[in-house]
């Protein structure tokens, strides 16, 4: 892949369902903002408008936001027409989708003469289909069957790249580019703990572990809570914060895990913060964060963002989590509450001995591998490659 900007596309479209809070959504915003500074005109299109992250693209030079939404059954058909007209009228060099439905929608570009490069973005690996409804399963099958009609398929994790190569996706079209992490937003903040204490009343003397994950079975909050119960035996005053919105259709799961926390006697220890727009403050306020997913992860942003804040993270071995933390002692098997609690305790002991070094090393790890401009240039180089 050439590092020259000669082949970089001059105008691109990033397509995603919405800009509500989520890992893929934040990645679109990050790419749009960074790529726009490198001489490429960026357009972002959403099917569902009103997402809070839309504000992050307002008044950004060289970035244009398009709303393709509507209501009712007719809107499902007009969406494709509007998308096709947007692509045709703008003469994009490349169009890049994020998640299965936007990926499939971009195939309308194949009906356009002198069409743009069609690029699909794959954001997950090791998905457990039993955790999803029939519509999601059908969409995943369609994405696999129709992947040969895309020009490029970019995975955001090495785990997904390996998986998709073994599952009959077009081998030559597959590439891997990790997510970018906004190292100016996610950074150490000496005032963060004080801000969180003022909001929540968490005692200053309490150790604090954070889980940043939407409410969905794949995030395995149940194992998280069982591990939390184990750790409270050694640290009765420890606190845990859980930040993340409830995935559509999983309100009953939210009730289940809240009830489980109560049954375990954790109501004083676990604080449910819901969806937040300030994860950088929350992560910097924690002594440590964790990710307890048992499936479905590709490149979990929260892990890398925590490390960028100088806050170490203990993870389950899913997706690229182990590669991101680059520390075997911070990686445990999925679904094992005893080993997770043990790893938490070991990390807390290390922090007590040398917190400053761990914080500095954690941040450097992310800067060296996932700085936004580095990832943006890799993306542009790939989007600028055309088949003969």
Describe the structure.
The structure is a single chain. With 388 residues, the protein is α/β, with parallel strands linked by helices. The protein has 2 domains: 183 residues, Glycogen Phosphorylase B (Rossmann fold, 3-Layer(aba) Sandwich), CATH 3.40.50; 178 residues, Glycogen Phosphorylase B (Rossmann fold), CATH 3.40.50.2000. Helix content is 41%, strand content 16%. It is built from 13 helices and 13 strands. The strands form 2 sheets. Strands 3-2-1-4-5-6-7 form a 7-stranded parallel beta sheet, sandwiched between helices. α6 crosses α9. The longest helix has 34 residues.
Q: What is the gist of this entry?
A:
The protein has 388 residues and is of the alpha/beta class. It contains 13 helices and 13 strands.
Topology:
Layout: E1 11-18, H1 23-35, E2 41-48, E3 63-67, H2 73-90, E4 94-98, H3 100-105, E5 117-122, H4 134-146, E6 152-155, H5 158-165, E7 174-176, H6 192-200, E8 208-212, H7 221-232, E9 239-243, H8 251-263, E10 270-274, H9 279-285, E11 288-291, H10 301-308, E12 313-316, H11 321-325, E13 331-332, H12 337-370, H13 372-383
Parallel strand pairs: 1-2, 1-4, 2-3, 4-5, 5-6, 6-7, 8-9, 8-11, 9-10, 11-12, 12-13
Give descriptors for this structure.
single chain, 388 residues, alpha/beta, Rossmann fold, 7-stranded parallel sheet, 6-stranded parallel sheet, 16% strand
Q: Give the ordered list of helices and strands.
A: EHEEHEHEHEHEHEHEHEHEHEHEHH
Distance between the termini: 15 Å
**Level of helix content?**
40-55%
Structural class: alpha/beta
Question: DSSP helix count?
Answer: 13
Relevant CATH superfamily of the largest domain: Glycogen Phosphorylase B
Largest sheet entry: 7 strands, parallel
What do the pLDDT scores average to?
93
């Amino acid at each position: 892949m050439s590092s020259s900007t000669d082949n970089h596309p001059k105008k691109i479209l990033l397509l995603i369902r919405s800009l509500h809070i989520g890992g893929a959504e934040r990645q679109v915003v990050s790419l749009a903002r960074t790529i726009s500074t490198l001489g490429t005109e960026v357009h972002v299109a959403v099917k569902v408008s009103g997402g809070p992250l839309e504000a992050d693209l307002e008044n950004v030079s060289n970035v244009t936001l398009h709303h393709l939404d509507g209501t009712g059954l007719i809107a499902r058909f007009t969406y494709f027409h509007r998308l096709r007209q947007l692509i045709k009228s703008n003469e994009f060099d490349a169009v890049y989708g994020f998640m299965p439905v936007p990926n499939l929608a971009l195939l309308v570009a194949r009906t356009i003469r002198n069409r743009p490069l069609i690029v699909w973005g794959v954001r997950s690996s090791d998905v457990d289909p039993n955790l999803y409804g029939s519509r999601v399963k059908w969409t995943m099958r369609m994405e696999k069957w129709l992947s040969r009609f895309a020009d490029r398929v970019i995975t955001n994790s090495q785990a997904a790249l390996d998986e998709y190569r073994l599952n009959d996706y077009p081998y030559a079209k597959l590439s891997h580019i990790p997510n970018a992490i906004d190292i100016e937003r996610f950074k150490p903040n000496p005032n963060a703990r004080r801000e969180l204490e003022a909001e929540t009343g968490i005692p200053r003397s309490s150790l604090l572990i954070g889980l940043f994950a939407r409410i969905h079975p794949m995030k395995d909050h149940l194992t998280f809570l069982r591990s939390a119960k184990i750790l409270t035996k050694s640290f009765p005053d420890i606190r845990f914060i859980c930040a993340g919105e409830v995935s559509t259709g999983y309100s009953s799961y939210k009730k289940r895990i809240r009830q489980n926390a109560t049954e375990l006697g954790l109501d004083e220890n676990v604080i449910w913060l819901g969806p937040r727009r300030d994860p950088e403050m929350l992560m910097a306020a924690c002594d440590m964060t964790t990710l307890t997913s048992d499936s479905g992860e590709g490149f979990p942003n929260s892990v890398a963002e925590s490390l960028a804040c100088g806050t170490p993270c203990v993870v389950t071995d899913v997706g690229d989590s182990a590669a991101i933390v680059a520390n075997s002692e911070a990686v445990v098997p999925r679904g094992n509450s005893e080993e997770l609690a043990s790893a938490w305790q070991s990390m807390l002991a290390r922090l007590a001995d040398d917190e400053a070094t761990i914080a500095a090393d954690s941040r450097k790890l992310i800067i060296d591998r996932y700085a936004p401009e580095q990832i943006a240039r890799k993306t542009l180089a790939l989007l600028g490659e055309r088949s003969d």
